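Quarterly update from the structural biology core.
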Amino acid sequence: MDRRLLFPAVAATAWAQQSNPAAVAAEKALRERAQTFYQLQTDEKYRQAEAMVADDTKDDYYASKKPKIKGFTVDKIDLNDDLTKAKVLIKAKVLILMPGAGAQIFEMPTPTTWKLENGLWCWYISAEAKVTTPFGKINTSGGAAPGSMDTRGAAPGGIENPNLGALQGQISIDTTAVELTPKGPDRQVRIKNGLPGSIELKVNGLAVRANGLSVKIDKAHLEGGETAVVQFHLDGEKKLADTVEIVASPINRVFDIQVTAK
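Predicted structure, tokenized:
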């Protein structure tokens, strides 16, 4: 079946933009503009990039703490119907100082907003973008709300001072208690990475491969959105009560899994 029949509105919009010479020209100009803007951010040439910032966003740009960008790609571009505003998805590799883990690089898919000013595409912070980022909320008023991250309008939506608790909360586990028996010697635990960037999982603990217990992770490297399965297996009929620790790096998220064998 033709996918356009399943998503007629989306297909019609995409087809109209692809067949509209003005839309094609607008997207090309915007992509080139965004590429230049973020290259200047990467090169830390912030004053030169200022010329590409919309007038109503310059104060936020001046006050922002600029992230350390180590690489980026200009991904998807969505233009509005009259070709005066657009959303551009930027995938930026940003250097973040993580407490207890040092400087780490995260790849953060970040939606950015652009609009035409005097015939040129300019980056600006929309009302929605001022309160939402991939890791939390932006607060441009001078203080961070509880549970949010204060980026003070940081371009391009990256985060220099992350809330560690908020980051760690993006990595989830379906259970922290495992019970094994001779009739049910196998159990699974699932860990999901809700961060945009990748993480590494490692099993710590003296219980591993001791007292007949083995613990294996099917996928130690998890990209954003991926899930790992931790397999627990008991050999024999030994009784066991111990804690298996699984650490998610680089943000040091620790899961203590209580394992019992009866």
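The two ends are 54 Å apart (CA to CA).
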